[in-house]
Design brief:
This protein is an alpha/beta fold. It has one domain. It has 5 helices and 25 strands. It has a 15-stranded parallel beta sheet that branches. An 8-stranded parallel beta sheet has the order 4-7-11-15-18-21-23-25. The N and C termini lie far apart (113 Å).
Amino acid sequence: MRNKFLFLPVCIFIAACVVLCAAGCDKTELFGSNTEEETKTGAKEGGGKQTPDSPATPGTSGTPVTVSTIWYVAEDGSDSNEGDSTGLPLATVNAALGKIRALYLGGKWPAGASAEIVVRGTITGTATTNNWAMVNVSGKGNYPPVILRSDPAKPGILDANRKAGAEGPVMYIAANKVTLEDDIVLTGGFSLWGGGVRIGTYGGEPGGEFVMAGGVIADNKSGAGGGVYLQSGEGATFTMTGGKIEKNGDAGTENGGGIFIDGGVKAVMTGGEIIGNNSALQGGGVYIAPDGEFTMSGGLIVANASAEGGGVSINKYGATFKNEGGTVSGNSPDEASVTK
């Protein structure tokens, strides 16, 4: 008799379940669903997170997450901060790049989105932060396109502080794309090649891509390319649509006080100014090496000085200068010349 009374409620419960399911009830309502944490981590079968067996593709989204594409660096910041808000800025651009790289390679970066780094105030290089280049954007596939710009409330300045003689540019770019915008300033670099910005190759990979839509590259020194050095290598490009490259180079800069364009590199200038740069031998403003190519359709190259080719120096062994517009004037001792 006791077993009959126990059996009856069980039968009623099972019957009720059958009726509910027949009416369209989701089985998870009866037997439970993955917890929120399990859904995020993919702990149960069908979870959204990519596992080591199915790695995320750089630059694509795995599990939907909220990711900031704007990062903040300030003179009063700390690299222990999150860096994704104006109230918690980082202290160095390389720290911001580290966070961006981790998200990008982890498959959490929004597809097709660029990364913006906003700099507020003066960021001064030290023995630790310089580590060859104060800002290093290299390694194929490591980053989305990077935009480096200034905070309108307090203009950003990246000062590599190379006066002590340490070697290295303010920024090094290889196998990635970087754009300068607004009024950000890159200064204080000293290097054998490219005191302000060096665009190079990385382990045999294609060269970097540098776009100067704004900003100022000023008061940098080097043996070649005081402001910008475009290293020989397939794919290295430079496009200048705005901003200024000014007062770079000195008696220790042999060629290219403003820009040195190495062989196999294409540089285009549609706007902006290359002004007041100096070199000892050739190309106070711009030096074009054999097989290098420079096309100018806008902008200004003025008040630069060198022993030869004060404005633009075109090496006679295959360098190309296409002057399709813009202004080259007031350079010493001449505007443009073909040199050895």
